[in-house]
């Protein structure tokens, strides 16, 4: 398939004796949304971190749009890339964290402009114009000069999404983007992610929001114990799961 955007192949990851990823394969096609479900400790965050090489895997590989992440292939051998080259690759992979991780000492606008200016050497004026456009897209055009602490959690997360988009990444990774939010703020963040899905952004979303998964996912993947237990369209995995482990999990979260 030529339109595979994210390709995770045979990935193993251990922390000391603890084997956290035990051979994970995953493909996401361009413009598609994959939602990852699974109990706490099943390896979901580690998998996302492996995709952008924040975790070095012990076996297997990851490629984005056909480019190997963290390594260069020569013959049969893989050579690790220098940190600087990895940072460059990471600008293709947007990451939205559970706890927003905005820079507290920078305004909303400065938060969004920082990476395009420092990592991509974009002219500041141009980066600011893009940032304002993105803030408008997430419904926060009037908050450009505000500091993060003055915003609600939902607003902070929408800024974090705008910040990720500012690098025009090939894929966006979300690690439980609404888990830290008060329930009444979850919807506004999910609406922004839905809007992105509708406009063809390639995404991997780790979440426990089953309704969101049903509505937005092209593929739902259930992880447990460091392996992909089953995957398929939402109607199959959520409404007609084949594996007992998936059924048990869904019974708890639904
Ligand atoms: P999930 O996101 O599905 O809850 P994680 O990927 O965060 O799961 O963690 C999977 C397992 O790996 C857990 O048992 C966790 O304690 C362990 N783990 C994660 N990161 C590290 C680390 N840096 N060092 C040691 N153990 C880790
Ligand atoms: Mg996690």
Structure summary, number of beta strands: 12
Rg result:
18 Å
Main sheet strand line-up:
8-9-10-3-11-12
Classification by helices and strands: alpha/beta
Helix-strand string: EEEHEEEEHEHHHEHEHEEHH
pLDDT below 50 for ≥5 consecutive residues: which ranges?
none
Shape: globular
Spatial separation of the terminal alpha carbons:
35 Å
Membrane topology: Peripheral membrane protein
Subcellular location: Cell membrane
InterPro entries: AAA+_ATPase, ABC_ATPase_HisP-typ, ABC_transporter-like_ATP-bd, ABC_transporter-like_CS, MetN_ABC_transporter-like, P-loop_NTPase
Organism: Streptomyces machairae
Q: Could you describe the 3D structure shown?
A:
The protein has helices at residues 44-51, 83-90, 108-118, 124-137, 153-165, 183-198, 210-216, 234-237, 244-253; strands spanning 4-15, 18-29, 33-37, 59-64, 67-68, 71-74, 77-80, 93-96, 171-175, 203-206, 219-224, 227-232. It has 254 residues and is an alpha/beta fold. A hairpin with a 2-residue loop joins β1 (4-15) and β2. α4 packs across α5 (153-165) and α5 (153-165) packs parallel to α6 (183-198). The longest helix has 16 residues, at 183-198. Magnesium ion (MG) is lined by residues 44-45, 175. It is a peripheral membrane protein. Residues 6-250 form the ABC transporter domain.
Could you outline the blueprint of secondary structure elements for this entry?
Elements: E1 4-15, E2 18-29, E3 33-37, H1 44-51, E4 59-64, E5 67-68, E6 71-74, E7 77-80, H2 83-90, E8 93-96, H3 108-118, H4 124-137, H5 153-165, E9 171-175, H6 183-198, E10 203-206, H7 210-216, E11 219-224, E12 227-232, H8 234-237, H9 244-253
Helix pairs in contact: 3-4, 3-5, 4-5, 5-6
Bound molecules: adenosine-5'-diphosphate and magnesium ion.
Residues 44-45, 175 line the site of magnesium ion.
């Amino acid at each position: 398939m030529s339109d595979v955007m994210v390709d995770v192949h045979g990935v193993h990851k251990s922390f000391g004796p603890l084997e956290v990823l035990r051979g994970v394969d995953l493909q996401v096609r361009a413009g598609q949304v994959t939602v990852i479900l699974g109990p706490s400790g099943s390896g979901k965050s580690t998998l996302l971190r492996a995709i952008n090489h924040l975790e070095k895997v012990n076996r297997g590989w990851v490629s984005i749009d056909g480019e190997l992440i963290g390594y260069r292939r020569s013959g049969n051998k893989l050579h690790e890339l220098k940190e600087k080259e990895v940072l460059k690759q990471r600008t293709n992979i947007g990451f939205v964290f559970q706890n927003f991780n905005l820079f507290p000492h920078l305004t909303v606008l400065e938060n969004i402009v920082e990476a395009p200016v420092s990592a991509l050497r974009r002219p500041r004026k141009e980066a600011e114009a893009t940032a304002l456009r993105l803030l408008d897209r997430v419904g926060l055009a009037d908050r450009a000069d505000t500091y993060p602490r003055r915003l609600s959690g939902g607003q902070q997360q929408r800024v974090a999404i705008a910040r990720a988009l500012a690098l025009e990444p090939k894929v966006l990774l979300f690690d439980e983007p609404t888990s830290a939010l008060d329930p009444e703020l979850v919807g506004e963040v999910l609406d922004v992610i839905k809007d992105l899905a509708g406009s063809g952004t390639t995404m991997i979303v780790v979440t426990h929001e089953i309704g969101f998964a049903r509505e937005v996912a092209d593929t739902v993947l259930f992880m447990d114990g460091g392996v992909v237990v089953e995957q398929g369209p939402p109607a199959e995995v959520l409404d007609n799961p084949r594996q007992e482990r998936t059924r048990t999990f869904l019974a708890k979260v639904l």
